Amino acid sequence: MSVKNFKFVSPGVFINEIDNSFIPRTAPPIGPVVIGRARRGLAMTPIKVDSYSKFVEMFGDTVPGGGNSDVFRETNTVSPMYGGYGAKAFLRGAVAPVTFVRLLGEQTAIGQTSSDAAAQAGWKTTYVSASTNLDNTGGAWGLWAFKSGSRSDGTLCAQNILTASLAGIIYTMNGTPMLSGSIYGASGSSTVTTASINTLINANSGIFTIRMSNSAGTNNYSVSLSDANERYIRKQLNTNPQLVGTDGDGNTQNFYPSGARVNYFLGETFDQDLLDTGLATSTTLAGMIAPISLQSTTDGTDSPAYMKKAAHTEPRTSWIIGQDLKTATDFYPQNMQKLFRLIGRGHGEWLQNNVKISISNIRQSNNSTTDYGTFSVIIRDMRDTDNDVVILERFDECTLNPSSPNFVGRKIGDRYVTWDANEKRLREYGEYPNQSKFVYVQMNADVEAGALDAVTLPFGYFGPPKFADVALSGGVGNSSELKLKKGLMGCTNTYINFGSAPADGTIEMWGLPTGPAVANDAYAYTGSSSPFNYGCDLKGATKLLSLQMKCIFPEARIRVSASAGGLTDPRNAYFGMQTTRTSQSTIPVAGIGEIHRMWDNSWLDDPTAGTNQTGVKNYAYVMSLDDIISGSKGGYAYVSGSRQREESKTSSGSYKDLLDAGYNKFTLPLWGGTDGWDITKPDPAWNGGMSTSATEDNSYIYHTWARAMDSVSDPEAVDMNMLVAPGLTNNNLTEKAMDICSARGDAMALIDLPNVFLPSSEGQQSARSTKASRLASTPTQAATALRDRKIDTSYGATFYPWVQTRDEGTGRLLWIPPSVAMMGVLASSEKKSQLWFAPAGFNRGGLTEGAAGIPILNVTQRLTSKERDLLYEASINPIASFPSTGIVVFGQKTLQERQSALDRINVRRLVIYLKKQISIISSKILFEQNVQATWNRFRSLVEPFLANVKTTFGITDYKLILDESTTTPDLIDQNIMYAKIMVKPARAIEFIAIDFVIASTGASFDD
């Protein structure tokens, strides 16, 4: 220290403390990138996690396959998700984090417009023209139900207008679902029965009979709309889309034995609406099955049955709106100031099914320094209730003041990423870093600019879009048909039949242009084109003079009463969306997110800002706290339109009166999310879904994998030392992974070989009965196939065969690709010693001894010595099973054909490590003067690092050259410092040769 830092006045001893013991900051550890499917979590974006507990929190636990019976409603867990096992294996012995990229279905712009279904993300049912095959129609069919009874004149029903609710949607790949039973309205000495579409049919004591018919046969199902009934529709009908007999292109699927396949699956059912309308428990029901379509089309493209072109889409709330600051009589909630909305950060359909948003603690300003009030944004579990709130995240004291540190956009974050298809990378936009794991904020431009009244507060929201309700009107006289109007819900010449008879005693039933022939004793199919004529004697049938029918598409219930559910304090009530079974229940209802699915792939991102297609309402409703009334006994309730009628709490006073009373909360849904997967496949990212000529433009599966890889290809964006896509065996994609690693120069790819083992999700129908059929290639065939690929790179490695593990959460046994086990071996090997030690052998590659981080119990093939030799000569590392010592990794070659030090994994990983760490060290002298002093500083940083690697047996010797011979004057003039580092990698012992010499008794060992 300079003496200038001391103040010398009078004699004395001056002491200063200098701490030179600071530990230099080391570079953070670098781990692998794992690509695969997961239960949930941010998708198509690299996410770093440093422990398995955090992985589970973000992406969910491992999925062993086997799944659940209700695949449509619940997450598809039918096939194993190998990516989760890879992350778990590595993080169990972690010395570094894992960067995980969760897959959701994506498509290119060319793929979206392609006529090839494989190029398009999403799913569809088949559609075959009636003129081609009457028994092979497919699509979306609504089951509509209403309470039956007697009309005021004693003939038909209790009201002139029937109101039917959509109870559920049945999707067919071929054939048509029909209601079977007596025709509603028929009377006399004989009850007319039929099985048909577009015909009102009576239920039997609340039980509908649904007939599923196609050319292969007919099955009848007795179903109830009550989830408390043993005949509940979701228990009786197939809810697994993967059991359909054909895929979206009409081709036979081989995922399951032929006896398990059916021609339909049940999609959405709307349990909350059925409970609210009393249809779930009524014993006097009637209904019909009719097609659901938005336009008069002949290919079903405007139907919930056609979700092709629907790539991964993020759910969002509609706009949250402010309170009315003007005259009550002029109040229309849809005209209120839009404030902000919340958009999912990458979770897909999981988010709208499992999460809801609440705005609470809305308070006006209580100080003189600002007019801006505050509020809280709460991310809640969809299954909670207002009696027992489960908070996933919360952001308190938010404000709409853009200059405040508590500005809601700053508090939650507004950054989002998009994919740049030209540069093949993710681009991030937004001002404020995201603080929520689930959503980001999109602010209205007026709010961001501070151009609204400062007293404005969140007071309500636009509801999600929905299919428009359909009004049907009947004819007069002999006409007994109700036409499904074109452009709303059906095709041209589509009619509802009510069973009343023309004068000649016959009945004319019109079907769809795709309509089915009805197989029933009472009706005889007599035509081959639309309309279809059915002959029948309706003895004594009552003639229908006129009737109207309204078909209602469901929407989530809005809380009406603050005291509903028996809340101890009604001020704890959240108005807006209510997710309980009934309005008074404290039990959540299942499947509420199904109401908010995107039923068509062309819905607008912001329906309130434009015109949606015909037949779709831009928003189901608009809810505002301005429509809360205060009853004579002090009870508070939501009554739509009450402010305009000057009956609400705020119309008789101010919005402050309502807030002061403590009614300052509401809940709203997220809607419109899609995963972009083909739901008819157990593993929608399956290798079998990609042809040998697959590209990003003709295969959405190929594009999804490729895009995930491209998102980690930039070494300045993502740190990694290994790239693994467990279970991916497509040759072009695995070679792409190696090319990315080679181009980066700081990572290597572990790849899996095709046809080593075929799980049932890869389309092996016979695998259920013949286990041997899963082994699609021998070691000889695998070695030959790899040689034929002519791969020559030290940035890739592969192993053989697959291994068996036990899922620790369920106890289920499953086969996993060898790349998963090797993830654990590489982690545990590095933890035991260093990453430059060979990840093989009994010390570090003993899978039976736990080297994989997860249990390894068996191998698909026990390799002989000759087979191990054959594989190793082809640069395939064998995983051997020995009777006495267990399962062990018995090789560590890279895929480099030429012999050099880099044809071994431990050396390749050593060099990657050296390059990465020295690159980090070198960055500390960037922009320093290119002089000897800087060179000396570089040497002082690098040489201790290399010496340490030598001490720990990574290298046997090294030499660093940095002087005028390397950094010449002309390089200095080009602002270049050039150094040479020469290293001798330590080699692993792979072969041990020992001579046993048998000597005679008189021989001397000294000789």
Widest beta sheet: strand line-up: 2-3-1-34-35-36-40-41
Morphology call: globular
Terminal residue distance = 69 Å
**Do you know the CATH topology of the largest domain?**
Rossmann fold
* Number of structural domains: 4
What is the mean pLDDT?
83
Radius of gyration: 35 Å
Strand percentage: 15-25%
Class based on secondary structure composition and strand pairing:
alpha+beta
Which class of the largest domain in CATH terms? Alpha Beta
**How would a textbook summarize the main sheet?**
8 strands, mixed
Assigned CATH architecture of the largest domain: 3-Layer(aba) Sandwich
**Given the structure, what is the number of helices?**
18
| Percentage of residues assigned to helices | 10-25%
| Overall number of strands | 43
pLDDT below 50 for ≥5 consecutive residues: which ranges?
128-135, 150-159, 474-546
Strand-helix topology:
Elements: E1 32-36, E2 47-49, H1 52-59, H2 82-92, E3 98-102, H3 109-113, E4 139-147, E5 161-172, E6 176-182, E7 193-196, E8 201-202, E9 208-214, E10 217-223, H4 233-236, E11 264-269, H5 271-276, E12 285-291, E13 320-322, E14 338-344, H6 349-354, E15 355-363, E16 374-381, E17 391-398, H7 408-412, E18 416-420, E19 425-429, E20 439-443, H8 445-448, E21 458-462, E22 466-467, E23 470-473, E24 481-483, E25 495-497, E26 548-552, E27 558-559, E28 575-577, E29 616-617, E30 622-624, E31 628-630, E32 636-638, H9 655-660, E33 666-668, H10 700-710, E34 722-724, H11 731-744, E35 748-751, H12 779-788, E36 796-800, E37 803-806, E38 813-816, H13 818-832, H14 841-844, E39 858-859, H15 865-873, E40 877-882, E41 886-889, H16 905-922, H17 932-951, E42 955-961, H18 969-973, E43 980-985
Parallel strand pairs: 1-3, 1-34, 5-26, 28-33, 34-35, 35-36, 36-40
Antiparallel strand pairs: 2-3, 4-5, 4-12, 5-11, 6-7, 6-9, 8-12, 9-10, 13-14, 13-21, 14-20, 15-16, 15-33, 16-17, 18-19, 21-30, 22-29, 23-26, 24-25, 27-28, 31-32, 37-38, 37-39, 40-41, 42-43
Helix pairs in contact: 2-13, 10-11, 12-15, 16-17
